[in-house]
Amino acid sequence: MNINQEQLLIFKTVIETGSFSAAARVLGKVPSAVSMSIANLEIDLDLKLFDRIGREPKATAQAMILYEKTEQLLVEINQWKQHAHALSSGLESSLNIVVVTELLYTKWTDYVVLLEQKFPSLQINIFTAPQEDALKMLMNKTAQLAMMFEREVLESREQFVELSVENLVPVVSKTHPLASLDVIRFEDILKCRQIVVASRDKSIKPELLYSKNYWRTDNHHSACMMMLKNLGWGILPAEMFDENPHLQKKLKVLHLSDFTPKFEYYVDLVWSRESDLGLAARFLIDHIRNQRIHTK
Protein backbone atom coordinates (compact mmCIF):
# COMPACT_ATOMS: atom_id res chain seq x y z
CA MET A 1 0.00 0.00 0.00
CA ASN A 2 1.51 3.29 -1.14
CA ILE A 3 -0.89 6.16 -0.39
CA ASN A 4 0.36 9.71 -0.70
CA GLN A 5 -0.85 13.12 0.46
CA GLU A 6 -2.11 14.11 -2.99
CA GLN A 7 -4.36 11.04 -3.21
CA LEU A 8 -5.88 11.85 0.17
CA LEU A 9 -6.48 15.46 -0.83
CA ILE A 10 -8.17 14.39 -4.08
CA PHE A 11 -10.31 11.83 -2.22
CA LYS A 12 -11.38 14.47 0.33
CA THR A 13 -12.18 17.04 -2.36
CA VAL A 14 -14.27 14.60 -4.43
CA ILE A 15 -16.46 13.82 -1.43
CA GLU A 16 -16.82 17.49 -0.49
CA THR A 17 -17.61 18.69 -4.04
CA GLY A 18 -19.71 15.65 -5.08
CA SER A 19 -18.05 14.93 -8.43
CA PHE A 20 -14.77 14.25 -10.17
CA SER A 21 -15.18 17.26 -12.46
CA ALA A 22 -15.94 19.68 -9.59
CA ALA A 23 -12.98 18.34 -7.61
CA ALA A 24 -10.77 18.81 -10.68
CA ARG A 25 -11.79 22.46 -10.95
CA VAL A 26 -11.04 23.09 -7.26
CA LEU A 27 -7.66 21.36 -7.48
CA GLY A 28 -6.69 22.76 -10.88
CA LYS A 29 -6.53 19.33 -12.53
CA VAL A 30 -8.22 17.63 -15.46
CA PRO A 31 -11.13 15.29 -14.53
CA SER A 32 -9.34 12.24 -15.92
CA ALA A 33 -6.43 12.80 -13.48
CA VAL A 34 -8.84 12.92 -10.57
CA SER A 35 -10.69 9.82 -11.76
CA MET A 36 -7.42 7.91 -12.21
CA SER A 37 -6.16 8.94 -8.74
CA ILE A 38 -9.34 7.63 -7.12
CA ALA A 39 -9.12 4.40 -9.11
CA ASN A 40 -5.50 3.88 -7.99
CA LEU A 41 -6.47 4.62 -4.40
CA GLU A 42 -9.21 1.96 -4.58
CA ILE A 43 -6.67 -0.53 -5.91
CA ASP A 44 -4.16 0.33 -3.16
CA LEU A 45 -6.83 -0.02 -0.48
CA ASP A 46 -8.58 -2.97 -2.13
CA LEU A 47 -11.77 -1.10 -1.33
CA LYS A 48 -14.57 0.41 -3.39
CA LEU A 49 -14.86 4.09 -2.48
CA PHE A 50 -17.43 5.34 -5.02
CA ASP A 51 -20.38 3.85 -6.86
CA ARG A 52 -20.16 5.09 -10.43
CA ILE A 53 -23.87 4.78 -11.24
CA GLY A 54 -25.51 7.77 -12.82
CA ARG A 55 -23.92 11.08 -13.72
CA GLU A 56 -22.03 11.62 -10.44
CA PRO A 57 -20.06 9.17 -8.25
CA LYS A 58 -21.64 8.34 -4.92
CA ALA A 59 -19.41 7.75 -1.91
CA THR A 60 -19.76 4.33 -0.29
CA ALA A 61 -20.28 3.85 3.44
CA GLN A 62 -16.64 2.74 3.72
CA ALA A 63 -15.52 5.94 1.97
CA MET A 64 -17.44 8.10 4.42
CA ILE A 65 -15.80 6.34 7.37
CA LEU A 66 -12.36 7.01 5.88
CA TYR A 67 -13.34 10.61 5.07
CA GLU A 68 -13.88 11.32 8.76
CA LYS A 69 -10.22 10.48 9.37
CA THR A 70 -8.81 12.19 6.28
CA GLU A 71 -8.95 15.82 7.46
CA GLN A 72 -6.99 15.13 10.63
CA LEU A 73 -4.53 12.94 8.75
CA LEU A 74 -3.81 15.74 6.25
CA VAL A 75 -3.32 18.19 9.12
CA GLU A 76 -0.89 15.79 10.80
CA ILE A 77 1.05 15.29 7.55
CA ASN A 78 1.40 19.06 7.15
CA GLN A 79 2.50 19.42 10.76
CA TRP A 80 5.01 16.62 10.25
CA LYS A 81 6.44 18.37 7.18
CA GLN A 82 6.62 21.71 9.01
CA HIS A 83 8.36 20.10 11.96
CA ALA A 84 10.83 18.31 9.68
CA HIS A 85 11.58 21.62 7.95
CA ALA A 86 12.06 23.32 11.32
CA LEU A 87 14.43 20.57 12.48
CA SER A 88 16.43 20.92 9.28
CA SER A 89 16.66 24.65 10.03
CA GLY A 90 18.16 23.99 13.47
CA LEU A 91 15.09 23.69 15.71
CA GLU A 92 15.81 21.55 18.77
CA SER A 93 13.69 18.43 19.28
CA SER A 94 12.77 19.77 22.73
CA LEU A 95 13.66 22.74 24.90
CA ASN A 96 14.16 22.41 28.66
CA ILE A 97 13.76 25.61 30.69
CA VAL A 98 14.31 25.76 34.45
CA VAL A 99 12.67 28.54 36.47
CA VAL A 100 14.00 29.38 39.94
CA THR A 101 11.21 28.67 42.43
CA GLU A 102 11.00 32.23 43.77
CA LEU A 103 10.28 33.44 40.24
CA LEU A 104 7.15 31.38 39.70
CA TYR A 105 5.03 34.44 40.48
CA THR A 106 6.66 36.48 37.72
CA LYS A 107 5.55 36.66 34.08
CA TRP A 108 7.84 33.88 32.87
CA THR A 109 4.91 32.19 31.11
CA ASP A 110 4.80 35.10 28.63
CA TYR A 111 8.05 33.83 27.15
CA VAL A 112 6.71 30.27 26.90
CA VAL A 113 3.63 31.58 25.06
CA LEU A 114 5.91 33.44 22.67
CA LEU A 115 7.88 30.26 21.94
CA GLU A 116 4.69 28.26 21.40
CA GLN A 117 3.40 30.81 18.91
CA LYS A 118 6.68 30.92 17.01
CA PHE A 119 7.42 27.17 17.15
CA PRO A 120 4.07 25.33 17.63
CA SER A 121 5.61 21.90 17.04
CA LEU A 122 8.35 22.35 19.64
CA GLN A 123 8.13 20.32 22.84
CA ILE A 124 8.82 22.61 25.80
CA ASN A 125 9.58 21.19 29.25
CA ILE A 126 9.48 23.48 32.30
CA PHE A 127 11.30 22.61 35.53
CA THR A 128 11.49 24.49 38.82
CA ALA A 129 14.45 24.36 41.18
CA PRO A 130 16.33 26.41 43.77
CA GLN A 131 18.92 28.83 42.39
CA GLU A 132 21.92 26.57 42.95
CA ASP A 133 20.23 23.53 41.39
CA ALA A 134 19.07 25.55 38.39
CA LEU A 135 22.65 26.52 37.64
CA LYS A 136 23.77 22.90 37.96
CA MET A 137 21.08 21.85 35.48
CA LEU A 138 22.48 24.33 32.97
CA MET A 139 26.05 23.22 33.43
CA ASN A 140 25.27 19.50 33.10
CA LYS A 141 22.98 20.33 30.12
CA THR A 142 19.82 18.97 31.73
CA ALA A 143 18.32 22.34 30.80
CA GLN A 144 19.25 24.68 27.96
CA LEU A 145 17.90 27.90 29.52
CA ALA A 146 17.30 29.12 33.07
CA MET A 147 15.40 32.07 34.49
CA MET A 148 17.24 32.89 37.70
CA PHE A 149 18.51 35.63 39.97
CA GLU A 150 21.80 37.42 39.40
CA ARG A 151 24.81 35.60 40.84
CA GLU A 152 27.47 37.18 43.05
CA VAL A 153 30.15 35.23 41.20
CA LEU A 154 29.64 34.21 37.58
CA GLU A 155 30.50 30.69 36.56
CA SER A 156 33.02 30.88 33.71
CA ARG A 157 30.78 28.86 31.40
CA GLU A 158 27.58 30.84 31.90
CA GLN A 159 26.25 33.59 29.70
CA PHE A 160 23.15 35.71 30.34
CA VAL A 161 20.86 38.52 29.32
CA GLU A 162 18.98 40.57 31.91
CA LEU A 163 15.20 40.10 32.10
CA SER A 164 13.80 42.21 34.94
CA VAL A 165 14.14 43.29 38.56
CA GLU A 166 12.29 41.44 41.33
CA ASN A 167 12.00 42.07 45.06
CA LEU A 168 12.28 39.63 47.95
CA VAL A 169 11.16 40.55 51.47
CA PRO A 170 11.75 39.04 54.94
CA VAL A 171 8.48 37.81 56.45
CA VAL A 172 7.14 36.01 59.48
CA SER A 173 3.78 34.81 60.75
CA LYS A 174 1.80 37.53 62.53
CA THR A 175 1.64 35.25 65.58
CA HIS A 176 5.41 34.70 65.70
CA PRO A 177 7.32 36.43 68.56
CA LEU A 178 9.25 38.55 66.02
CA ALA A 179 5.97 40.07 64.79
CA SER A 180 5.26 41.58 68.23
CA LEU A 181 8.50 43.59 68.35
CA ASP A 182 8.16 47.31 67.67
CA VAL A 183 11.80 47.57 66.65
CA ILE A 184 13.47 44.58 64.97
CA ARG A 185 17.24 44.60 64.88
CA PHE A 186 19.43 42.44 62.70
CA GLU A 187 20.54 40.42 65.71
CA ASP A 188 16.90 39.65 66.52
CA ILE A 189 16.39 37.74 63.27
CA LEU A 190 19.77 36.03 63.64
CA LYS A 191 18.57 34.48 66.90
CA CYS A 192 15.42 33.01 65.31
CA ARG A 193 15.18 30.00 63.06
CA GLN A 194 15.19 30.86 59.35
CA ILE A 195 13.29 28.88 56.73
CA VAL A 196 15.54 29.07 53.69
CA VAL A 197 14.90 28.00 50.10
CA ALA A 198 18.02 26.10 49.09
CA SER A 199 19.50 23.39 46.94
CA ARG A 200 18.76 19.75 47.71
CA ASP A 201 22.53 19.33 47.82
CA LYS A 202 23.36 20.11 51.43
CA SER A 203 27.02 20.72 50.57
CA ILE A 204 25.97 23.92 48.78
CA LYS A 205 25.54 26.91 51.08
CA PRO A 206 22.13 28.55 50.60
CA GLU A 207 21.93 32.10 49.31
CA LEU A 208 20.25 34.74 51.53
CA LEU A 209 21.11 32.73 54.63
CA TYR A 210 21.47 34.79 57.82
CA SER A 211 20.51 32.71 60.88
CA LYS A 212 22.79 30.03 62.25
CA ASN A 213 19.70 28.00 63.08
CA TYR A 214 17.87 27.23 59.86
CA TRP A 215 15.73 24.67 58.08
CA ARG A 216 15.94 24.03 54.34
CA THR A 217 13.31 23.43 51.68
CA ASP A 218 13.61 23.42 47.91
CA ASN A 219 10.66 25.69 47.10
CA HIS A 220 9.03 28.85 48.42
CA HIS A 221 5.55 27.28 48.70
CA SER A 222 6.65 24.84 51.38
CA ALA A 223 8.73 27.60 53.00
CA CYS A 224 5.62 29.75 53.21
CA MET A 225 3.59 26.92 54.76
CA MET A 226 6.24 26.44 57.47
CA MET A 227 6.29 30.16 58.22
CA LEU A 228 2.51 30.14 58.58
CA LYS A 229 2.96 27.44 61.24
CA ASN A 230 5.38 29.66 63.22
CA LEU A 231 8.36 27.45 62.42
CA GLY A 232 10.58 30.37 61.50
CA TRP A 233 11.00 33.52 59.44
CA GLY A 234 12.14 33.62 55.83
CA ILE A 235 12.53 35.55 52.62
CA LEU A 236 9.79 35.32 49.98
CA PRO A 237 8.97 37.07 46.69
CA ALA A 238 7.13 40.37 47.24
CA GLU A 239 4.90 39.57 44.26
CA MET A 240 3.66 36.51 46.11
CA PHE A 241 1.88 38.83 48.55
CA ASP A 242 0.60 41.19 45.89
CA GLU A 243 -1.31 38.32 44.28
CA ASN A 244 -2.49 36.61 47.47
CA PRO A 245 -4.54 38.69 49.97
CA HIS A 246 -4.78 35.60 52.19
CA LEU A 247 -1.04 35.77 52.84
CA GLN A 248 -1.18 39.48 53.57
CA LYS A 249 -3.55 38.74 56.43
CA LYS A 250 -1.37 36.03 57.96
CA LEU A 251 2.22 37.08 57.26
CA LYS A 252 4.01 40.26 58.26
CA VAL A 253 6.87 41.91 56.39
CA LEU A 254 9.70 42.47 58.87
CA HIS A 255 10.69 46.14 59.07
CA LEU A 256 14.26 46.01 60.22
CA SER A 257 15.85 49.00 61.91
CA ASP A 258 19.37 48.26 60.67
CA PHE A 259 18.72 48.08 56.91
CA THR A 260 15.96 48.31 54.34
CA PRO A 261 14.00 45.04 54.44
CA LYS A 262 13.85 44.61 50.69
CA PHE A 263 16.24 42.59 48.58
CA GLU A 264 16.25 43.85 45.01
CA TYR A 265 17.56 41.30 42.55
CA TYR A 266 18.05 41.35 38.82
CA VAL A 267 16.57 38.37 37.02
CA ASP A 268 18.52 36.88 34.11
CA LEU A 269 17.95 34.42 31.32
CA VAL A 270 21.03 32.22 31.57
CA TRP A 271 22.61 29.57 29.35
CA SER A 272 25.89 27.69 29.12
CA ARG A 273 28.54 28.73 26.60
CA GLU A 274 29.22 25.04 26.07
CA SER A 275 25.64 24.18 25.04
CA ASP A 276 24.81 23.89 21.36
CA LEU A 277 21.61 25.95 21.49
CA GLY A 278 18.88 25.32 18.96
CA LEU A 279 16.74 27.70 16.94
CA ALA A 280 14.10 28.30 19.64
CA ALA A 281 16.58 29.01 22.43
CA ARG A 282 18.51 31.44 20.23
CA PHE A 283 15.25 33.11 19.16
CA LEU A 284 14.25 33.75 22.80
CA ILE A 285 17.68 35.15 23.67
CA ASP A 286 17.60 37.49 20.66
CA HIS A 287 14.02 38.53 21.45
CA ILE A 288 14.96 39.56 25.00
CA ARG A 289 18.06 41.40 23.76
CA ASN A 290 15.92 43.32 21.25
CA GLN A 291 13.38 44.12 23.97
CA ARG A 292 16.13 45.63 26.09
CA ILE A 293 17.39 47.74 23.19
CA HIS A 294 13.94 49.14 22.44
CA THR A 295 13.06 49.89 26.07
CA LYS A 296 16.21 51.91 26.73
Automatic annotation (TrEMBL):
<keyword id="KW-0238">DNA-binding</keyword>
<protein>
    <recommendedName>
        <fullName>HTH lysR-type domain-containing protein</fullName>
    </recommendedName>
</protein>
<dbReference type="InterPro" id="IPR005119">
    <property type="entry name" value="LysR_subst-bd"/>
</dbReference>
<dbReference type="Pfam" id="PF03466">
    <property type="entry name" value="LysR_substrate"/>
</dbReference>
<keyword id="KW-0805">Transcription regulation</keyword>
<dbReference type="InterPro" id="IPR000847">
    <property type="entry name" value="LysR_HTH_N"/>
</dbReference>
<comment type="similarity">
    <text>Belongs to the LysR transcriptional regulatory family.</text>
</comment>
<dbReference type="InterPro" id="IPR036390">
    <property type="entry name" value="WH_DNA-bd_sf"/>
</dbReference>
<dbReference type="Pfam" id="PF00126">
    <property type="entry name" value="HTH_1"/>
</dbReference>
<keyword id="KW-0804">Transcription</keyword>
<feature type="domain" description="HTH lysR-type">
    <location>
        <begin position="1"/>
        <end position="60"/>
    </location>
</feature>
<dbReference type="InterPro" id="IPR036388">
    <property type="entry name" value="WH-like_DNA-bd_sf"/>
</dbReference>
<dbReference type="GO" id="GO:0003700">
    <property type="term" value="F:DNA-binding transcription factor activity"/>
</dbReference>
<dbReference type="GO" id="GO:0000976">
    <property type="term" value="F:transcription cis-regulatory region binding"/>
</dbReference>
